[in-house]
Amino acid sequence: MFSRDHLSYDPIPLPDHIAGSDDDMRAAALAFEAAMATRHTVRDFDTAPVPRDVIETCIKTAGNAPSGANHQPWSFVAISNPDLKARIRAEAEEEERRFYAGGAGDEWIKALEPIGTNDHKPHLTDAPWLIVMFAQRYGEFEDGTRYKNYYVPESTGIACGFLIAALHHAGLSLLTHTPNPMKFLNAALDRPVSEKPMMILAVGKARKDAAIPAVAKIKKPLDDILTVFE
Fold first, then answer.
1. Which residues form a coiled coil (predicted)?
2. Phi first, then psi: what are they for 222, rounded to 5°?
3. Cis bond upstream, residue 181 (ω within 30)
């Protein structure tokens, strides 16, 4: 974490050393892969409330992600307020209408057809929580002096992955939503110009009648995503 105070390199023993056998590693890896294989993007949310402390704990997990120079260039805004969710939905749908009316281009719209999406986004008000993730393009001290952050897209992407895994592990469903553009979120959530909205996560429990597009179950085989040099 960047500080005006002088911070020198001060090595300490690894605090949480994990030393399992090969079989332990295999079992843990298989168990986690199986758990994450049950994660599905959901658009049909139960409106039942989700405790705030669960959301806070999952965001705390995201805060443990590695980042460039340990600057942790992210911030999260968690929203359960119905009026604010309604405002975000209205402004997001306005951007989505432009997107589907031609802003996206034919190729992008065709790619979305098997997913079954359109400019109607009820999940933004149905889900009990929205979590908006912001990337801090640069940091600022209290007097407004700026300092540089490093590897911001990579760092925030990793943190978002941590958050998605944590929410799923907690038994929650979610949808990653990225209206284009997203600048309206800075005004709606009173965020500084140094922060760029990355995505909205709609979070809650899936409705009992929730459905997903069949194409979502088609995943690339390992041979298509992995190259190994031994």
1. none
2. -55, -40
3. yes
The Cα–Cα gap between 15 and 13 comes to 6
Q: Which residues contact 86 (CB under 8 A, 6 or more apart)?
A: 125
* Local confidence pLDDT in tens for the 230 residues of the chain: 666 677 888 899 999 888 889 999 999 999 999 999 999 999 999 999 999 999 999 999 999 999 999 999 999 999 999 999 999 999 999 999 999 998 888 998 999 999 999 999 999 999 999 999 999 999 988 888 999 999 999 999 999 999 999 999 999 999 999 988 899 999 999 999 999 999 999 999 999 999 999 999 999 999 999 999 99
Domains of the chain: 42-207 (3.40.109.10)
CA dist., res. 146 & res. 194, Å (int)? 9
Q: Judging by beta carbons within 10 Å of its beta carbon (0-12, 13-18, 19+), is residue 84 exposed, middle or buried?
A: middle
Task: Find tokens 């300490």 and name the residue.
Answer: 12
Q: Rounded to whole angstroms, how far apart are CA atoms 203 and 172?
A: 7
